[in-house]
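Input/output pair, single chain:
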Amino acid sequence: MSEPASQPNEMRTNSLSSSTNAALNAVLAEHLGETFPAVALAVYHRGSVIVESAWGYLDPITEIPLTSDALFDMASVTKLFTTTAMLSLLSERKADLQTPLVEIVPEFGAISPRGIDGGQDPHSKKHLPTPRELADVQVDPAQVTLFHLLTHTSGLPPWRDVFNAAGLAPMPPNVPDPIDQPTRWQHGLEAMCQYQFVGEPDGVVRYSDIGLMLLGEAATRLHGTLSQLEPMIQERVLDKLGLSDAMFNPVRSGRATQMQTVPTEIDATWRKRRAWGEVHDENACGLGGIAGHAGLFATASAIAEFGQAWLDGAGAFGITPELAQQSKQQQASTDGNPRGLGFLLKSKEGSSAGDVFSDSSYGHTGFTGTSMWIDPERELVVALLTNRVYPGREKPGIHAFRRAMHDLLAREVDG
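Output:
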């Protein structure tokens, strides 16, 4: 396989200066083919697209070039779509931030109180030891509110192997799965309602995929599509913007071919294949490809358009100005990790948004190598999508790449 060139395969829009383009190409030359084989970028400034481009290979083996209409696995950027839907429901007063989860998902409180353990490592899958000082602590699940889920302060475990509870590994996305998605979800939900906590709902940020899965379930019930997340997000988020290039299960649903999606990592132990056309995240995959924390596939332009709708005030989603503002303001922070309602806020040091983005910036990253950052002071939206897990999840470089790219783009619009 030859090294991909840092010149774009497709440049639909580019109004950057020649010096910024040269610096951008230098950054790409350092990372393309090393940190990831594919990258797409879409940038809005003051409501207009200033960059939409794609570099690298969709398939590095056959050297098929990436194009701007390729669908990337968004990983945890999916969380923003789930929280946007929930915030629209709260704006309709279907519930409020202090509503206990058990009032919407009563089975979450069926086992009460629940103890605390050390959780599970998402990479090794090993169960972690319970902190000695928490060994005798009991948690009442009724204490967990929607606010706790939106701010990752619920005390729920960051990760558990829900996929093992959901059923056997699914078939490849172009082959019918013997276990349907609703059945997989119900098995997973039963497990999530029984897991021990890792802490109390005490304001400490413990970034939790489990919490966002449960938030998604709560949203479906408030919306009236019990346990059906996809139609709820479609109606409350995607249809509001007319986004046809953002979807769950692109291949299994027949809305895209495998070659229209960007491959990620080889799963050597569970699926025993490369994740291509199906979500990389094991839990989302095991749950049938649709979950509140991961599963969405999208183009860079779709993510940038979503970000622009937030920059415009989130009124397109029916979210009240007051709630939209709260979402972008610090609600909790632990170890320099500030959180809004769903949004990751720019940290004072080492942010993936770089050093130049304003302190009021907000966004989210995805484990597969995706991100979206919004700088309201510059009226700047950057959707930067890669498949950095393609060579393996331990490959370094994505954080430095993100920081360099965001710094370049912020300096460009500053003139």
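The domain at 10-78+238-414 is CATH 3.40.710.10 (Beta-lactamase). The chain has two domains: 10-78+238-414, 94-223.
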